[in-house]
Amino acid sequence: MASFVLIPGGWHGPWACADFVARLKRAGHEAHAVTLSGLDQFADRPVAGEINLDTHIGDVVELLTVEDLSEVILCAHSYGGMVAAGVADRAQERIAALIYLDAFVPDDGQSWWDLAGERYRQIAIDRARHDGLSVLPPERLDARCRPHPLGSFLQALRLTKPAPAIPRIFVYASGWEATPFTAQYQRLLRDPAWTVHSVTCAHDVINAAPDQMFKILTETARDLSLG
């Protein structure tokens, strides 16, 4: 049995991967989806001004600690890659593999703002005007999406340790024109430390290509003799 922890992307909560988590559990694995601070769809009051990237990293580290999870396969979507990189730095002893599902793969000192590109920086500016603290969900996203704390997009990631010597996997979704991940995909293809997959689907890879994602996650577990 493997332990999977899934980090949703910007504006999203654990509901975004609930069906996939349930599928992993039916297959006999332990699986958790994280609720990042400020993105709880049932929260009464926004606290966006108190939240940054460190807060979200702490959310995941707290889950790993409270649930006493080890040999975790940490899976992140989109913005969640920023969080996963920080978690892998702060809780290396608990992480067995990293899977970036069409997600940002940052280096030390980089922020979402640095990596997202001009198109998405402009979206963040335009949709943060309502309070200057949180970014309203882009149009056409699920109605359950919440305003995303602006500080978590702006804060630079700080890594304090060498990258862990564990499997690192990147899944590139090639089926959407606005992707900011093409250059990252091409770079990681040339890096022997990475296993790279390309899937012809939209950005929400877990729901757009669930069978392929399930195969990638469970094969990773099998390769690690975890399930």
Question: Which helices and strands appear, and what pairs or packs with what?
Answer:
Blueprint: E1 3-7, H1 18-26, E2 30-33, H2 53-66, E3 72-78, H3 80-90, E4 95-103, H4 112-116, H5 118-127, E5 134-135, E6 148-149, H6 150-154, E7 168-173, H7 182-189, E8 194-199, H8 205-208, H9 210-223
Parallel strand pairs: 1-2, 1-3, 3-4, 4-7, 7-8
Antiparallel strand pairs: 5-6
Unreliable stretches, pLDDT < 50, 5 or more residues?
A: none
Q: Count up the domains.
A: 1
Tell me about the largest β-sheet.
Answer: 6 strands, parallel
Could you say which overall geometry the principal axes of the C-alpha atoms support?
A: globular
Q: Any idea of the CATH topology?
A: Rossmann fold
Please explain how this structure is put together.
The protein is an alpha/beta fold and 227 residues long. It has helices at 18-26, 53-66, 80-90, 112-116, 118-127, 150-154, 182-189, 205-208, 210-223; strands at 3-7, 30-33, 72-78, 95-103, 134-135, 148-149, 168-173, 194-199. A 6-stranded parallel β-sheet has the order 2-1-3-4-7-8, sandwiched between helices. The protein has a two-stranded antiparallel sheet with strand order 5-6. The termini are close together.
Overview in brief:
This protein has nine helices and eight strands.
Tag the structure with descriptive keywords.
single chain, alpha/beta, two-stranded antiparallel sheet, Rossmann fold, 9 helices, 227 residues
